[in-house]
Amino acid sequence: MKFMNRRAGLSVIALVALLTLARPCAAQSQSQFAWTDSTTTKVKPEMRREFERSLQQLVAGYRKAGIPWFLTFETFAGDTNEFTTVAPVAKFGDLDGPAVSIRVLGEVEWKRWSRRIERNYTSQTRQFATPQAELEIDGKGSPVGLYWVETRTLVAAGKMGDYLNLLRNDYRPALEKAGVTRFQVSQPIFGAAAGEILIRRMLRNLAEIDEGAVLSKALKEEEVRAIAAKSAAMVSSSHSRIVRLRPDLSY
Questions:
Q1: What is the mean pLDDT of residues 22-41?
Q2: How far is CA 243 from CA 11, 71, 170, 205, in A?
């Protein structure tokens, strides 16, 4: 999706979710905002550095404008040319005014910046999602890790309520018992298939994956199978990837 005049500032910005890096006390829950605006951008390999330089300029503009946080993830397991950027939206009406990038850069400089960054990518996918605050684990004071497991799940028609209850009553408590300190759930509304759920779970480090399935750390084998069976009855498909938080392109 190309950058457009009114909404350009938010068009280069995934998941489910999120947190800032500077210090633990600054980590902010999605639940403080009605929406998150995320965009996944497929960058041309040879233009990666130029894209990152342009994105740094946008990040600086958002910080200057007082936007409370701005996050950038790059795909670690999946399409490694993908970047996902995320910013909060208090209410949709905020998007009616001039975009943040236009307000900060000015109309002339914004046009120059848009032309530069548009040369760097082949496509963009933009989504607006609503955070599911009651399902999250927000480990205030715990370190913010670089790596996250992100899963997009397509829930079968008529099963959304049951699936969210599964996350609330079975999955989330098991994650807490397993020691997971940051876990977020959001429901993409615009720019996604109906029935999609996005979850992100923070990893302490990549070595955590070698320890095996996260639920097995907290539950007996038969309990893990029971949750898997419940989920299978409600899910049409799911796709997981590992993303890495970019501190230099976030705040």
A1: 65
A2: 19, 12, 25, 12
**Main-chain dihedrals φ then ψ at residue 183, nearest 5 degrees:** -150, 130
Whole-number Å distance between alpha carbons of 69 and 158: 35
| Domains of the chain from N-terminus onward | 8-129 (3.30.70.100), 131-244 (3.30.70.100)
What per-residue confidence (pLDDT) applies to 32?
67
Does the pLDDT value for residue 248 go beyond 60?
yes
Give the C-alpha separation, 177 to 70, whole Å: 30
CA pair distance 91, 55, nearest whole angstrom:
24
What's the pTM value of the predicted model, to 2 decimals?
Answer: 0.81
Distance CA 86, CA 91 (A): 15
What is the C-alpha to C-alpha distance for residues 80 and 77, in angstroms, rounded to an integer? 7
Strand pairing partners for 126?
39
Banded pLDDT at 197 (limits 50, 70, 90):
very high
Q: Flag whether pLDDT at 234 surpasses 60.
A: yes
Answer yes or no: are the C-beta atoms of 203 and 145 closer than 8 Å: yes
Backbone angles phi, psi at 114, to 5 degrees: -60, -45
